[in-house]
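Weekly structure sync, notes
Attendees: PL (lead), two postdocs, one rotation student
Agenda item 3: pending single-chain targets
PL asked that the sequence for the first pending target be pasted directly into the notes so everyone works from the same version. It is reproduced below exactly as submitted, 101 residues in total.
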Amino acid sequence: MYPVLSVICYNPDLVEVFTTLLSSSTDQDKPNVTVTYDTTFNLGNFYVSVLLFRETEFDPYPIVPLAFLLHERKLQSTHDEFFSHIRKLCPQLDNAVNVVI
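Predicted structure, written out during the meeting:
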């Protein structure tokens, strides 16, 4: 595909759950939310990157996939595009004080 194929997949309900866990400087009583991003799967001619978060509303805190990126090359620009999309989905990330990446 020209120039680079990338597909972003997510469940809007999980995005909503994630954003409710984020706290701003005026709401600091929520626990830290750990976010992890990794490109570990090479499935033939493409890669799968996954963005995970720790769901702090349940005990024990399960790790839940927030979004997936299917991409054909491991380019910085591809990952930048993915995180730009995540910031649009979760604008609360810009002001969140309880997120650890």
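Discussion points:
- The two ends are 31 Å apart (CA to CA).
- The mean pLDDT is 88.
Action: rotation student to compare against the earlier draft before next sync.
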